[in-house]
Amino acid sequence: MTTSSGLREFLTSRRAQIDPESVGLPPSAIPRWGRGLRREEVAALAGVSVDYYARLEQGRIGNVSDQVLTAIEDALRLDPLERQHLRSLVSPQPARTRPRRPEKPQVRAGMRALVQAMDPLPAPLQGPRMEVLAWNRAASILLTDFGAMPARDRNIARWLFLDSSNRTRYPDWEEVAAPTVAALRAAHNPGRPDEALEKLVGGLSVTSEEFARYWADYRLFKHAHGTKRIFHPTVGVMTLNYETLHIADSDGQFLSTYTADVGSPAAEKLSILMSWGTSFTEEDQVESEAGQRQSEVD
Q: What SUPFAM superfamilies does this protein's entry cite (predicted)?
């Protein structure tokens, strides 16, 4: 995808999400053939000419002033992440300074040791494309046995959309799925080549209609913190807190942790689950760690 087509897709998707009445526009005498704002309405709200905005949306504008960009961002009601994304599309890095993202992220030995030391706190480590790079015993018990998966399948997006058991594992599946795709969208920078991400998105778009629909929405999301309801057949549904720790000097790797409020029913269930996880033996852990190291070689 070129930067210009990415810009057009992004701006078109954002204006399609805005109800004209919500920005004070009167009912139109001309029938609307699509959702949201027309180009001329965005131009009027931003205080630029229709021709200028049309050329900007088509990627046919050179330098754009900060004042104009801010006016367009305000007209489209962009949030901070969307504003950052727009500016990366309008002013991409020069090709000679734009490094390609490595297809096989490497995990520092110290990071891998930290993940293991966090047990019994479930802690999977992910790469920028949501590939699962490292995990501990607790993560395997709470989520799934990543070590039993082929290396290419160890990806949260692939797992979430292609493993039907996740519809049960996550009672609020859509509330988990939509941000997952939006986070992949935010990681997708048309100005920075990433063939592995393009391949992942292309494959999921073909095999999952829901993924394709979420991708077309062009929502952006950055993992931070919140709550998720997770079902486990041993203890039932637990409401857990998740925190996302972005790892410095790792080219986009991030660590997710899961905890429960102190004294809550979920805390008791999580404690029981970790203590009952006897099926995940010491031998399983050794094999799992070997699988994590092998995933960097495959």
A: lambda repressor-like DNA-binding domains
* Helix, strand, coil content of the chain in percent (nearest 5): 50, 10, 35
Mean pLDDT of all residues belonging to the chain: 88
> Same domain, yes or no, for 151 and 272?
yes
The residue range of the domain holding 59 is: 3-92
Strands (E), the chain: 125-126, 132-134, 225-232, 236-246, 254-259
In a shared domain, residues 57 and 160: no
Work out the percent of the chain whose per-residue pLDDT is above 70: 86
Whether 99 maps to a domain, the answer reads no
pLDDT confidence tier of residue 1, bands split at 50, 70 and 90: very low
Q: Do residues 261 and 121 both lie within one domain? A: yes
Q: Is 130 left (phi over 0), alpha (psi -120 to 50) or beta?
A: left
pLDDT in tens, 121-176: 999 999 999 999 999 999 999 999 999 999 989 999 999 999 999 999 999 999 99
In the Cβ-directed half-sphere of 153, how many Cα atoms lie within 13 Å?
13
First to last CA, the chain: 27
User: What is the spatial distance between Cα 248 and Cα 237, in angstroms, rounded to a whole number?
Assistant: 34
Confirm if 196 and 188 have CB atoms less than 8 A apart: no
Residues 20, 149: one domain?
A: no
Q: Is residue 261 part of a domain?
A: yes
Q: What is the count of structural domains for the chain?
A: 2
Sign of CA dihedral 136, 137, 142, 145: positive
Residue positions counted in the chain:
298
pTM: 0.84
